[in-house]
Amino acid sequence: MPELPEVEVVRRGLAQWVTGREIAKAEVLHPRAIRRDVSGAFADLLAGRTIVSAERRGKYLWLPLGPDDALMAHLGMSGQLLVVAPDSPAEKHLRVRLTFADGGNDLRFVDQRTFGHVMLSPMKDGVPEPIAHIAPDPFEDLFDEDVFAARLRAKHTEIKRALLDQSLISGVGNIYADEALWLAKLHWARPTNTLTRPKIDELLAGVRQVMASALRQGGTSFDSLYVNVNGESGYFERSLEAYGRRDQPCSRCGTPIRREAFMNRSSYSCPRCQRQPR
Fold first, then answer.
1. Is residue 73 part of a domain?
2. pTM, whole model, 2 decimals?
């Protein structure tokens, strides 16, 4: 699933291509793509509206249509928001298409597995209402390090579980959690209540460092399902230190990277640099 860097790459592309444009028509080609829409008249309510900007919190994107509502998107496992010429053939998994009054490029939502969705949502406290409970991400001005540290220590859970809790910190998924923990030399099972404030600050710095680096490289693309709005893949996969590197040497100490089962997924770490807690 795309994490913060991948979604931010898409947001930047959308900001460039759709800001200030009037929607002429919205077409829904698969009902699952708008299954969470609460408006009841998705296509009708979008026609004639102007996209004000492109915004993001964590893994969610939205296109404000004014102060009161926005077109929100969650990419899920395979969702893509593509900006393409209006006369381009329909993609195999095209779900929603927006055409614009200026006759320029379409905005298309393509989703092979239909886990993602788009919806028209009212705004609440500056974000779409369905994600008002999600915590600010570590790049937002609203992110409070003191609050994060206190809530993290109060969790009494494994540190990686806490990093994946979007109500605590948004935007971090499996890939960047493993990478940040490698940078901070923390095992994923370390209890949160054992972390000192300096170690929490080090971990936060690692989260920001790895995601900023991924953003500069266009995100992480393990297959063709994550692309930016122009259909291009990111290349941060080449810079990964832990995730997906089972049995390859740790770049710090040379010990083979270990893969462990974690929440029906995988977690990767260095057995020497990231000591497993007793």
1. yes
2. 0.89
